[in-house]
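Hi V.,

You were right to ask for the full record rather than a summary. Here it is.
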Amino acid sequence: MRVDNGVTARNAAGARLQGRSLIPAVAAILLLLGAQAARPAPTLEHWQTAAGSQVFFVESHELPMVDVRLLFDAGTVREPAGRNGLAVLTNSLLDEGAGEMDATAISFEFERLGAQYGAASGYDYASVSVRSLSDPALLEPALQNLRRVVAEPAFPGKAVERQKQRLLVAIERKRQSPGEIARDAYHAAIYGDHPYALPNDGTLDSVMSVQRRDIVNFHRDRYGARNARLVIVGDLDREQAEALAGELTAGLPRGRAPEPFPALTPVEQGGEIRVEHPSSQVHILLGQPGIRRGDPDYFPLYVGNHILGGGGFVSRLYEEVREKRGLSYGAYSYFSPRRGPGPFTASLQTRGDQQEQALQVMRDTIRDFIDRGPTQAELEAAQNNISGGFPLRLDSNGKILGYIAMIGFYDLPRDYLDTFVDKVNAVTIEQIRDAFKRRLQPERFVTVMVGPNPPAAREAD
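Predicted structure:
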C-alpha cells in the first residue's frame, strides 16, 4: 500500500502534468539547499475563506519558496455519462488561454517570474499548482496568473481540437502496451458500472463526442470555490497566507455543490480475463476493490501489505515468485485508497510458458498470508523499515505539499502526519490477520492476463 497523495494518476495520459522550467537562479538555490535534514512532522493550520474554500497551510522558511495547489472535485468520477475523458481535457486546457492572454502569454508570464505551473487530473480530483519564489514582487503576479488560468479559461476552439487529437493518439498508443491493456481491463472488471471502471483518458468514442460546451460546463460546475481545497506550503506567515488564499479564491466561480459519491456495488464473484497480445511477457493483474482513504483498517493493511508485496526485495511475493522460482523479475501488491474503495492489486510479468505456474504461486502466497498473517520477525522488520524511512518523505516542501493535499481533500485527521509512525508501530499480527481476512476474499479476485497464450492453450485452439 502506498501512502502518497493519490493525486498522480497511474496513467500518464490520464494525469497530465505540465512543467515550466525554473530560472537558473532558483535552480541554483535548490541544488545548494535542496538536501535538507529530516524534519519533524509539519504544523498544519486550517481555515475557510470567505468564498467557501478550505485552506490548509504549513509555514516553512527553510527555502525562499512557496508551493500552492488548488484541488477540485473534478475528476473522472464527476464526468457526465458518455463523456469519459472530459475531466482530463478540461484540466489540460486551462492554460491554453485565459482572460486576455493566449497560451504563449500565460507561459511567458510564468517563465518571466521564475514560477513553475503544473496541472493533473485523476479519478477523484483535478488540481493546478504553482511554485514560486516568496518575494512578493514575483509571488503575487505568479498567483494572479494562476487565478486567471483557473477562473477565466477561454478554451479556444483550436486548442480544444488539438488536445482532443493528442488524447486520441495516446489512446491509440495504449493498444500497443500490454500493461495498459491489462490495467484498463482490470479496472473495468472489478468496478463494473462505477466510474472507477473507466480509463482516465477516455475511449476513442467518448473523447470524440466531447464538445467545447461540455468543457465549459464542466469547468463552470466543478472548478468553483465550494469545490476547492487550497494547500499552501512555504515561506509565508499565517497573515500572508490568509491574504493569499482570500485573493486566489475570491475570483473563482461559485461552482456546484458536491453531490454524494457514486455508490459502488461489490464484486460478487471472481473470474479470469485473457487477452492475447504479441508481447514477450504476460502481464498479470489480480485483485478486487479495496479500501477508502481514512478507512479504519488502513494501518493494519498498509503494514501487512508491506510484508506481502509492498516491501520490494524483502516481500513474500518477491521471495516466492522471483527468488525461489525465478518466474518473474518481480511480483508486487498494493492498496490504492481513493474516495471510494480503490483497488487492491497484485501484479507480475512472466514468460508465456510460465504464466500458469507464476499465477498459481502468486495466488497461493496471498491465500497463505490471509490465512496465517506475518511472523513477528516480519512485522518488526516492516515497522522498522516504514518508520525509519518516513522522515525522508517529509524532507522537502514539495513532498509535504502532496501529503497535505491528500489530508485536505480526503478529510483525514489533521494530526495524520504527527501520528503516522506511532500508528504503524502499534499494529499487531492479530490486527493484520483480522483485517486481511475481512477485507480480501480470494474467491472474488478478478484475474487479467494479457500476452501470448500458453502453449497448451494454443494447441487446444
